């Protein structure tokens, strides 16, 4: 086999593709749980591996080995396929993100407009989330799915407006190019601090984390859209959630923190450090708030986050006029 | 079932409910339009059991009616029996009873505060409240020997004396808890999200609170100025200084503030009791046989007015004991608070009365055809069962 075939295969399946993504996602779950626990004066995972670092792996394997129940009354096709698709779309998104693996500043797959594709895939995961809950024909599942869909009306718009601001500033719709545009040292967080904050809030909702964990609010609607899902499907969805955490924190890292670029070099260590920083920020936010009610969440988005992101867009247009992005190629 | 509405069953098993009770909510979108509570899942036959045990054994039985307000139940029971015996506990015992009763209240309110935080998805606050409660349980263990079921009250006194060493650690914990209670008060007052989830949620007007017979913090949060400790003092509450906290708003926020302020007031009461503590005996010997008679005693449990009726027939066993727990009195009020609420507010509203389901379960029959609900005693139920079978030609 020639190198032209082997290298892409390794890139897709092992590093920085599938295997790498899954391992990093599970490690990020550990970081998230540990930070959350420490903020609450707890210890968090501790027993599996050093400081419990292998706990997410153990959880995943345990769930995979559990009995997989498909209740008789569900819409079988959607019920079985949705968890797979949620995981699939989350994983595909990672291929568009430049990770700096092999010292290369480009992502595995890159073309003009891949950023749009990533955002679309992210929306699709929510749509299939809805389908998973709805097809289970469980009352709590149905309520949870409805809430997930309603929540989209809040976070999706600021996410896209912030994306537009970034794209305008970096002059490209490709994540690889956006990261490259910041290689000169001026990260976009310096030019778009408001967009950074708005995006952090929006991904908190996208990831269904406190204060926006409304679709699976445990004390109100049991496990929300996850209520009727068990065994392997639950394992896949839990994994998909971790992959989504990785995907969105790496998106923030790419858009605002320069992605893999540090000191003029593309470097996976720098990329992972930035992703870690974003995960720690979202975990701390998770520990600091109570849960919104769905109507309060939507009004918070429409009254504060969307105007913020619009302000960022206008500012970016003005800034582009007076002070163009210095490292434009 | 009306097809326009979804009926959501909440319970008997549900993450928002720590104990089994069932509510069927008819909802229109996210709004609750009808509530139907159903009790009885945790019925344990304690009142019947009490009739076959002597008065001393019953102390430990009634302690187990409710783990969280165990001190309130035993205080109420022994006060009732002491009244039947015409016996007065020594002054020091009355003060110690007061202290353990109030410690019990602080622990119950902290536990409740943690649960409220959990219900609104604020798990960090939940962890903090329960961490602080842990210190209190430790000091109660040092005083009584147990963390939850204290086995402290006796007919005619209390079991353990307060040593100077324990008193010192108790004062230390109280100082710390006062600081924490003030902090939680500030958090609830200032945190926008907590306010957004509690202000105006589950409002119970003063009129409804009185009409539906609400008790305890649920009533005091609606502006009803009632507290058995002040209105009908027992133990040493006639000599100890404390204030009754009343707020007028009637929503979950008011009930939260009432409970947090009550933590501070309980600390005041305990510190006052410690400074006024008389010396002397901590118990007197009580006879096993109780003269014929009947008596009602009531105490202010953490959840509200707790009532014991004890009837004696002159033997060492009670002929009848009736327990009216505060949660039962608050169920009509919570159903009122739940109508027209958001689904997302259900847990907060149910939690706002601090329900203790195991305490209150009785046999309840629901006639499905007429929709009538009535509570029956074990005897009525037995007679009904015999007649039912006789009509079908079974039995004698």
Provide a descriptive summary of the structure in words.
- The complex is a heterodimer of chains A (about 325) and B (about 400).
- By secondary structure, chain A is mainly α.
- Chain A has one domain (about 70-320).
- Chain A has helices spanning about 5-15, 20-40, 55-65, 75-95, 115-135, 140-170, 175-180, 190, 195-205, 220, 230-255, 270-290, 295-320, and strands at about 260, 265.
- A two-stranded antiparallel sheet of chain A has the order 1-2.
- In chain A, a hairpin with a 2-residue loop joins strand 1 (about 260) and strand 2.
- Chain A is globular.
- Chain A starts with a helix and ends in a 7-residue tail after the last helix.
- The mean pLDDT of chain A is about 85.
- Chain B contains 15 helices and ten strands.
- Chain B has two domains: about 45-325, Cytochrome-c3 Hydrogenase, chain B (Orthogonal Bundle); about 365-395, no CATH class.
- Chain B is α+β, with helices and mostly antiparallel strands and about 400 residues long.
- Chain B has a three-stranded antiparallel β-sheet with strand order 1-2-3, with helices on one face. In chain B, strands 6-7-8 form a three-stranded antiparallel β-sheet.
- The two termini of chain B are about 40 Å apart.
- The relative contact order of chain B is 0.17.
- In chain B, helix 2 runs antiparallel to helix 3 (about 70-85), helix 5 packs antiparallel against helix 6 and helix 6 (about 165-190) runs antiparallel to helix 11 (about 250-275).
- Chain B is globular and about 65 Å long.
- The interface of A and B includes residues 40, 221, 287, 291 and 295 of A.
């Amino acid at each position: 086999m020639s190198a032209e075939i082997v290298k892409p295969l390794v890139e897709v399946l092992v590093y920085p593709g599938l295997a790498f993504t899954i391992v990093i996602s599970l490690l990020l779950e550990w970081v998230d749980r540990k930070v959350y626990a420490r903020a609450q004066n707890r210890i968090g995972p501790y027993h599996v591996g050093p400081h419990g670092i292998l706990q997410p792996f153990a959880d995943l394997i345990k769930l995979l080995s559990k009995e997989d129940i498909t209740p008789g009354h569900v819409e079988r096709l959607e019920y079985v396929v949705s968890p797979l698709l949620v995981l699939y779309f989350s994983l595909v998104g990672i291929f568009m993100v430049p990770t700096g693996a092999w010292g290369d500043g480009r992502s595995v797959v890159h073309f003009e407009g891949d950023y749009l594709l990533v955002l679309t895939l992210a929306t699709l995961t929510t749509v299939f989330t809805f389908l998973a809950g709805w097809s289970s024909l469980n009352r709590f599942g149905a309520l949870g799915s409805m809430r997930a869909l309603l929540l989209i009306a809040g976070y999706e718009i600021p996410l896209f407006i912030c994306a537009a601001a970034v794209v305008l500033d970096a002059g490209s719709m490709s994540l690889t190019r956006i990261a490259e545009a910041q290689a000169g040292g001026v990260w976009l967080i310096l030019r778009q601090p408001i967009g950074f904050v708005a995006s952090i809030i929006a991904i908190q909702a996208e990831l269904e984390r406190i204060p926006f964990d409304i679709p699976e609010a445990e004390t109100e609607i049991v496990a929300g859209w996850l209520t009727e899902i068990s065994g392997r499907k639950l394992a896949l969805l839990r994994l998909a959630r971790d992959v989504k955490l990785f995907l969105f924190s790496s998106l923030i890292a790419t858009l605002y923190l320069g992605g893999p670029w540090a000191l003029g070099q593309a470097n996976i260590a720098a990329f992972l450090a930035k992703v870690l920083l974003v995960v720690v920020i979202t975990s701390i936010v998770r520990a600091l708030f109570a849960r919104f009610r769905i109507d309060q969440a939507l009004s918070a988005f429409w009254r504060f986050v969307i105007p913020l992101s619009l302000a960022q867009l206008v500012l970016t247009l003005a800034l582009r006029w007076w002070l163009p992005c210095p490292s434009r190629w | 079932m009306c097809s326009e509405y979804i009926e959501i069953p909440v319970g008997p098993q549900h993450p928002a409910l720590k104990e089994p009770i069932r509510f069927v909510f008819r909802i229109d979108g996210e709004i609750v339009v009808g509530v139907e509570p159903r009790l009885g899942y945790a019925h344990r036959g304690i009142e019947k059991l009490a009739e076959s045990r002597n008065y001393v054994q019953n102390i430990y039985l009634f302690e187990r009616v409710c783990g969280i307000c165990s001190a309130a139940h035993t205080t109420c029971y022994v006060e009732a029996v002491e009244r039947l015996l015409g016996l007065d506990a020594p002054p020091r015992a009355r003060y110690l009873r007061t202290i353990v009763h109030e410690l019990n209240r602080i622990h119950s309110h902290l536990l409740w505060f943690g649960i409220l935080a959990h219900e609104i998805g604020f798990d960090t606050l939940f962890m903090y409240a329960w961490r602080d409660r842990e210190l209190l349980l430790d000091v109660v263990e040092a005083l009584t020997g147990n963390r939850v079921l204290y086995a402290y009250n006796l007919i005619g006194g209390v079991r353990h004396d307060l040593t100077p060493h324990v008193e010192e650690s108790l004062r230390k914990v109280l100082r710390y808890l006062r600081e924490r209670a003030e902090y939680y008060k500030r958090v609830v007052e200032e945190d926008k999200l907590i306010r957004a989830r509690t202000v105006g949620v589950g409002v119970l007007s003063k009129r409804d609170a009185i009409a539906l017979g609400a008790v305890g913090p649920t009533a005091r949060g609606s502006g009803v100025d009632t507290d058995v400790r002040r209105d009908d003092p027992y133990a040493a509450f006639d000599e100890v200084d404390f204030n009754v906290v009343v707020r007028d708003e009637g929503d979950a926020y008011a009930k939260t503030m009432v409970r947090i302020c009550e933590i501070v007031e309980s600390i005041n009461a305990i510190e006052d009791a410690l400074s006024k503590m008389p010396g002397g005996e901590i118990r007197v010997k009580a006879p096993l046989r109780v003269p014929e008679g009947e008596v009602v005693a009531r105490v202010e449990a953490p959840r509200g007015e707790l009532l014991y009726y004890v009837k004696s027939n002159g033997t060492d066993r009670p002929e009848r004991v009736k327990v009216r727990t505060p949660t039962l009195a608050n169920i009509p009020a919570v159903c009122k608070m739940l109508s027209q609420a958001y689904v997302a507010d259900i847990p907060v509203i149910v939690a706002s009365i601090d329900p203790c389901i195991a305490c209150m379960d009785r046999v309840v029959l629901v006639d499905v055809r007429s929709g009538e609900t009535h509570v029956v005693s074990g005897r009525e139920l037995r007679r009904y069962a015999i007649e039912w079978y006789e009509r079908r030609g079974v039995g004698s």
